[in-house]
Structures are given as structure tokens and as C-alpha cells.
Amino acid sequence: MLKRNLWKLLLSVAIAVWAVSELIPLHQTPFPIYARSHATARQAEFSSLMDEAAARHKADVSVSEYVALRNIAKERRIDLSKYYPDIPLENSLTNLEKRNDILLGELLRRSKSHLHPGLDLAGGVQVTLEVDPKAMAANPDVVEQGKLQKAIDIISNRINGLGVSEPVIRPIGTNRIEIELPDINTRDNPDIVNEVKAPARLEFRRVHPTLTPNSANPGEIPPGYELMTSEQERKGGQPAEELFIKRIPEATGEIMSKAYPRNNSYGQPYIELQFTPDGRKKFAAMTKAISDEGKRTGTLGRMAIVLDGRLYEAPTVKEEIDGPSAIIEGSFTDREAIEISQVLNNPLDLPLVVKQMNEVGPTLAADAISSGVKASVIGALLVAGFMITYYTIGGVIAVFTLAINIVIILGVMASFGATMTLPGLAGIVLTIGMAVDANILIFERMREELKLGKTLKSALVAGYDKAFTTIVDAHVTQLAICAIMIWLGTGPIRGFGLTLAIGVFSTMFSVLVTSHLIMEWLIEKDIVKKMPMLHFLHTEKFDFVKYGLPSFIVSWTIVALGIGVVFYKGHAIFGIDFAGGDEVTLAYAQKLEPAQIRKVADAQQMGEVNPSYATAVGGASETLHIETPYNESGRLVTALQAAYPNAKLEKIGEDHIGPSIGSEVEWNALKAIAWSMVVILIYVAFRFEIGFGVGAVVASVHDILMTIGIFVIFGHKFSSPMVAAILSIAGYSINDTIVVFDRIREELKLNPTMKLRDVINLAINRVFSRSMMTSFTAFLAALSLYVFGTGVMKDLSFTFIVGIITGTFSSIFIASPVFFWWHKGDRGHVESHADVVPKYEWTGSSKASQ
Q1: Which terminus of the chain is less hemmed in, N or C, by CB atoms within 10 Å?
Q2: Could you give the 3-state DSSP secondary structure of residue 471?
Q3: Contact 696, 815 (CB under 8 A)
Q4: What is the average pLDDT value for the chain, to the nearest integer?
Q5: Between residues 781 and 333, which one has the greater pLDDT?
Q6: Per-position b or e across 18-47, b if 16+ CB within 10 A of its CB
Q7: Is pLDDT of 561 > 90?
Q8: Closest to 106 in 3D by CA, of 125, 123, 77, 84
Q9: Each residue's pLDDT tens digit, 634-646
């Protein structure tokens, strides 16, 4: 047995160990402590430098010890890598500042946990960018024609390219943009704002063909040229090259279509530029003119590549270059190559300046975070307790593999550098509730085999064999929906899709490989001789098809009612993420907890409010910022002043904030739902047949619309996590439907003379217990989050509670009847469209007896 399953054992152990290693360290270590403890050479000397950095930080708290250490090294030309010989750096990188920046960046990265906390858990940095007043004075139309929204889209792309997860980016008024970056502070990342708002103007200019600063008279600069120093490092410690560069460019970045960060055969980063068709022609003409001029003057013509006023390279041009691409080489680090490529791909033509920069505290209070974590733990324990109680030994094994499943999910998320938010934690708990579905499916199959008189070993083999196809089909459809969420979604929607996709893979692995291995070993070694299971639900001959039509009418009437309420409320169903609102800034004498502020808002029936505290960078005073729906900030401030007079709240500012989810994202969410339905139809039709596909799509649309309708009827409002949750409902619904359809297909093969109506009823009766058990475990997890959670976690869990109930209902009373009606109740119509020829297990042959 061990020899046969050795690969499963080794693979399970290897993946579990890798996942744990990715999660270490679990907590962030302050940079000064980490830097001191990991210096492996000249420790006393380095400790003295850190003491000096600490003194500078104490004298000016706006300068972190990280930046202070970098400044000390720059001032004294200290190579910090000598204190860390175990951290490899590129030997050819002779620029001392770049070497130190790379080293310090690596130390800062290692000091942090791999799972980054989001704004709600750990806070971050908030930056307000404003259109340059000088540019507006010179051209009042500078922010017209959608340029502010275009700038928001460009900044979003840049930040995503820099690896900052789940940022919040939205317009403020008509000429400002607010950016919130989680788990980042400007003291350790002083350059990130400049990276975000850099204009990224790429220019191709001529180098003076004959005159150089060395050959010219001191102070002499040819007319039409300027003196520029190359960013390119030179070998042997030689000073950087200085050249006379023509002021007017021959071409700009408009000639390129895309920029890519690359590495040459020596691992040295460079940037590849892909030209547009017209850009290729222009570049060819430009290089031909430079090479011709060089030939006339008897010199090698050179072309300068200038980015944002900095000379990166000045290659020689011997002949015309007519090709689809060109490269920019320089002393780039990998990060610089990525950053430059990002800004080149997203050139910002709107001049922006920093209006305000704040360090923002967690948007959730400690009690809200504590209650959210508590709710998640209780939900996981309820699922585990139910599985152990109902399935006994099998439940223990399922819980053990579920723990491995969670470790794998978190490990993969950590390897991606994912951001962990409270809604993300809720998503993982709900994934746990649904992940036991595969175990339940196998256990219920084993129950059927044991009922037929098979041995425990035979029941195990048959249970896994018969459940395998169903598990794969159900998870592949879920995975397809996750892929669409990742493809078309942004921010929390994409993050939710990624989390669920990881959960799908890890669930299949933990159940089909790890759990199978453990159960097989326990049973074959006679350690487990019986698998007692409770059985509360007994349905043998219930006529589900009979109640299909009345159930269909009643449920779609509820759907119509819910959609009617949606249209009646209109834009009132959207939260601040979609609709925008007001942001009021308050000074205070006594700090209020976010829970206290939300309590007052609830009493005023104000809807969504988002309080947070912020401290201006370089300042000492902290202010309270509260986001409210439009025209509600004044009423909230008045109510807060009356409820908490000792707080002495004073309004010092107010802004209108735009939605953090633009119309493009809304449209992508609708497209994601539409594409999900198309994928479900195609996959189910391919794996089963078209009638099954139609039934699955009708059921999924029913579940999505009913969930939206009930969500709105109960007064909840849509935010970005809600969109992700509704898309997830489609995945849950199709999972349950696939199980029912797979059993119908199986019973059609095993009962070749049975009427279609009777086959459907038989199949549903046989999977009814499994459907209820799976729904109950997922319901337990969602209910825990709803009862013990707060804020967005409560909304998220409410969505899942409704989705779980409607998904279970629709797989039985919507999808199956639609399949029945599609084929007009005629079994022959099904058989003419699908392979349902019965298969027989021949016994008595020599092959079968072996």
C-alpha cells in the first residue's frame, strides 16, 4: 500500500511544508529590530549605525529609521552589503546608492509577513493628489474631457503593477484624486507617491554629433542643446558620461505600443519597446537620419533616450533601424525595470501635485476586528464539530484534511503577496463551509455502497470512483467562474476570485489525494474497521418533479418582486464604493471608536459610514475622517456632537468623494456574470448535454437575481465585496446543480427502462441527504459570520445565507424541472441528444475474477 501511494504521501508532505514556509513569518518584525538581528558581519559597527539612525528618527519622527539609515550610508558612502554577506547582490552593480536601496528594500520585504493586512486591519497611507494649480491657471480645460477619470485608471494600473494589493482610488471634487494604500507607510516608502504620479514622458533626442563637454570650452553649451548626465553606470568606478543633448525631441513615447521589463542572458534587466506601425516608420526614419549625419561628419551618430528628463542611454546608430521593437539598457534593478515599464505603459498627461499625505489607522476598530476573527473561528469550529458528530471517523479525517486545505490556501495567498482583509477572511471561512462538500459526497456514496453489503474497503474504492467525476465537474465549473472574476474584476472582486480559485485547487488536492491516502491507509491496515454515520434525512419516493411547476412559479414571483424593488430604489441600492458620498474631517478632544460612530449613524438610519483616523505626514495632530452618503455628513456630525459632547468634535473640512468603483468596473461586473452563464452553458452542455446546460443556466440566473432582490429588500447596499459574493453564489449554485445532474445521468444509464420523470425523482432522492448536509455546513459558517461579525462581514454573510438557501432550492426545484421540460418529459429525446446507453458490470469472467 505504501509503495503504491508513496507519491501521494511525498506530494502531500511537500505541499504542506511549502505552504507553512510561505506563511513564515506570521507577524511583521519592526525594521530596526529585523535589521539589527540579521546583520551577520561587523555587528558592533552596524549596531552603532542603527543607534545613530534611531537618534535621527527621535529628532524627526517623520524620518523613519529605515530612511535615516539610507541617508547615513549615502552621506558617508557606506556599502551596507558588507554587513549582510549572505544576501546576494549583482556584482556588476557598482552604483552604491542603488546597491544600498536594493539591500534595504530586501530587508524591509523580509521583515514583513507574507500575508499583508489590508486597510481595515492595519491602515496604510492616504494621499490626495491635486491637478497642478499653475497648469489649471494656464489652461482651465486641463481637467475636462474625462482626464481626471483617465488619470485614475492610469494610477490604478501603475499601483497594481507595483504589487500593492487592494488599493482604494477615487475622485475628490473635480480636480483631486484620493489614494489609499494598505500596509504601507511613507516613512519607509518615501518614493512611492512620486512613482504613482510620474508623468512618464519618453523622448528620443539627438546627441551633438561633434561636440562633447570635454572638447568644448568651459561653460560652453551649443545653441538648442542642454548638458545631461547619463544614468548609465560605467565600469571601473569612472564618472558618469556627460553629453550635449538636443532640447527638442525627434520622437516621443507615442511611437511605442507597449513596454516590457526583460532580462538578458546575464540576468541584467532592460526594457523592450514595441512600436506601433506608424512608430516603426518614424523610428526607422529617425535612425536613418542620425546614421547619415554621422557618416557626413565622420563620427558615430548617437541617439539619446530620455525619460522624464533623465538620460538613460545614448546608443550609437550605425545604420537605419527598421524593426518592430527596440531596447533601453541601463543600470536598472529588476524593480526599476518593472516600474519604468509600468509608467511607460500608462503615461500620465495630467500634471498632479501632492495636496495632502496622511498615515491612516485601521478603518475597523479593535473590537470589530476581534469580533470578525471570533466569528471566523466559531464558524470553522461549527463546521468541524458537525462533520465529526455526523460522520464520526470520516468527519475527523475530513477536518484534518480541511486544516491542511486552509494552510495551503493561506500559503498560496502568501506566496502571491496577497492582502488579507476581514471580508477576505470571511471568504476563506465560507470556502471552508463549502470545501467539505467533496468529503460529504464521498461519505454519502460510501454509505450507499455499505448499504448494498460491500466491505468497508470496497465501499471506499467505489465511493471515490463514483464521486470522482462529479467532484471534478463541479470544481471545474467553479474554477471557470473564478477565472472570469480574476479576468474582468478589479480590487476586492479579483481578490475574492483569486481566493476562491486557490480554494478550489486546494480542496481537490486535499480530498482526492491527502484524504484518500489517509482513509485508504487506515482501512487497509484494519485500524478503522467501521465507519458509523448518522442519517437524519430519509427520502425514498418523494415526487420532486410534481412540485417543480408550483415551485418555479412561486420562486420567480419572489425574483420579480425583488427586481421590482431594485428598480424602485434605483441608485439608492449602491453604497459609497459605487455611488460616492461625502468625507468630513473633524478635530476632537476625545477619541471615539468606529463602533460608537456607526451606532449613532444606525440610530439616524443613515446607512453606510466609514470612519478612520489619519495623521498628516510630518505632523503630530490626528484627525477623524468619516465617509457618509451624499448630503448626510452634516446630520451625522450634529448627532455625534449631541451624543458625545465630551469629544468636542469640530468640523474642519468636507469634500465630495467619487465612487472607488468606476462605470468600467460596474460594466465588467455585469460582463463577468454574463460570461459566467455562457461558460456554465458550454461546459455543462459539453460534459452532459444541452438540456442540462439550459437547466444549469436558468437555475444560476434564478439564484443571482433572487439573492440580489432579497439583499435589497432587507435594506442592504452594494459594495465591491458584495459583487464578488454574488458571483461566488453562481459558483456555489452550479456546484450543487452538477451533483444532481451527474446523478440523473448515472441513473439514466443504470435504469434503461425507467421513465424520465421517475429517473429524475430517483436521482434527487438519492442525493437529497448530501445536498442538505453540504448546505448545512456552508450555512453554519455563514450564520456564524452573520451573528458574530460586523459591518461588511455581516453583509457578506447575509448574501451567502440567501445564496446557499436559493442554490440548494434551485438545484432541486428549478434546474431539474427545466431539464425535464426541455426534453418534454420524454426519455427518448434525452437519449437522442446524449450518451446514456447503460453500462453493465460483467462478472464471472477470468479478467473480473483476477
Answers
A1: C
A2: helix
A3: yes
A4: 79
A5: 781
A6: ebeebbeeeeeeebbebbeeebeeeeeebe
A7: yes
A8: 84
A9: 888 899 999 998 8
Q: Which residue has the cell 470589530?
A: 368
pLDDT tens digits, 629-677 = 888 888 888 999 999 988 888 888 887 776 655 565 667 777 777 887 8
Torsion of CA 699, 700, 706, 708, to 10 degrees: -170
All three cell numbers of 82: 558588507
Comparing CA positions, the residue from 500, 480, 484 lying closest to residue 413 is 500
- 671 Cβ contact list (under 8 Å, min separation 6): 488
The Cα 126–Cα 179 span in angstroms is: 6
Write down the pTM of the prediction.
Answer: 0.69
DSSP string covering 774-787: HHHHHHHHHHHHHH
Total residue count of the chain as it appears in this document: 850
Partners of 420 in beta bridges: 117
User: Quick one: pLDDT at residue 837?
Assistant: 43
Burial 780-793, CB ≥16 within 10 A → b, else e: bbbbbbbebbbbbb
**Is the CA virtual torsion 749, 751, 755, 757 positive or negative?**
negative
- The Cα–Cα gap between 806 and 784 comes to 19
CB 784 within 8 A of CB 800: no
378-417 residues labelled b (16+ CB within 10 A) or e (exposed): bbbebbbebbbebbbbbbebbbebbebbbbbbbbbbbbbe
Q: Exposed, middle or buried by CB within 10 Å (0-12, 13-18, 19+), for 219?
A: exposed
Which domains does the chain show, CATH number per domain? Answer: 32-111 (no CATH), 124-199+356-360 (3.30.70.3400), 202-347 (3.30.1360.200), 366-570+663-831 (no CATH), 581-657 (3.30.70.2040)
Question: What confidence tier does 718 reach under pLDDT thresholds 50, 70, 90?
Answer: confident
Judged on CB neighbours under 10 Å (0-12, 13-18, 19+), 591 is: exposed
How far apart CA 227 and CA 212 sit, in angstroms, is 9
To which H or E segment does residue 802 belong?
Answer: helix 791-813
Average pLDDT over residues 721-726: 72
Residues 66 and 63: their CA atoms lie apart, in Å, by 8
Alpha-carbon distance values, 595 to 125, 182, 392, 652, 787 (Å): 22, 21, 41, 22, 16
pLDDT in tens, 265-321: 777 788 888 889 898 999 899 888 988 888 888 888 888 888 767 787 787 888 888
**Residue 42 contacts residue 82 (beta carbons within 8 Å):** yes
Hunting for cell 443556466 — which residue is that? 697
- CA-to-CA distance for 63 and 702, rounded, in angstroms? 56
Spatial distance between the Cα atoms of 257 and 268, rounded to a whole number of angstroms = 23
8, three cell numbers: 501521494
